[in-house]
Design brief:
The protein is α/β, with parallel strands linked by helices and 139 residues long. Helix content is 26%, strand content 14%. The protein has one domain (3-111). The radius of gyration is 16 Å and the shape is globular.
Length: 139
């Protein structure tokens, strides 16, 4: 494990230790919709095993938001909230549409690490594996 990954992990554990063990889930009406665009295996395990729960990060998000998974930014409605966490490379037309959407008032948080080291049992090149680098798309 790299030193950078250890620091990130320690920071995440410190933040999680400040919270309740299981976050109280707000009622559906009180939780706004959050559209999640990611290449990371947050909603399911790499093997798509139904017996394995989703990521603790997803559980924390679901305590505060009604999380909806999307494949493309164009699936997010006007005025929506988009969390793009290490997204895959997007086609040029999607990037243009995303730019217009944000300029028109769409809200987006982009989490992109060009040096991400995500543990994976899948072989390099497998589409289900998180990309080894964030694609320079101009985002």
């Amino acid at each position: 494990m790299t030193a950078r990954r250890k620091v990130v992990l320690a920071a995440a554990l410190l933040l999680l230790s400040c919270r309740e063990a299981t976050p109280a889930r707000a009622p559906d009406k009180a939780r706004p919709e959050l559209f999640l665009l990611t290449s990371l295996p947050l909603a399911w395990s790499e093997g798509f095993d139904l017996d394995q729960p989703g990521s603790p990060a997803l559980a924390a998000l679901e305590a505060h938001y009604r999380v909806k998974l999307v494949d493309l930014p164009s699936q997010v409605p006007a005025g929506g909230l988009l969390l793009a966490a290490q997204p895959r490379a997007l086609p040029a037309e999607e990037l243009v549409a995303l730019d217009k959407w944000v300029r028109a008032g769409g809200r987006m948080v982009l989490l992109a690490d060009p040096m991400l080291e995500w543990p994976s049992d899948l072989p390099l090149g497998d589409k289900r594996r998180p990309p080894i680098a964030f694609p320079d798309t101009g985002l």
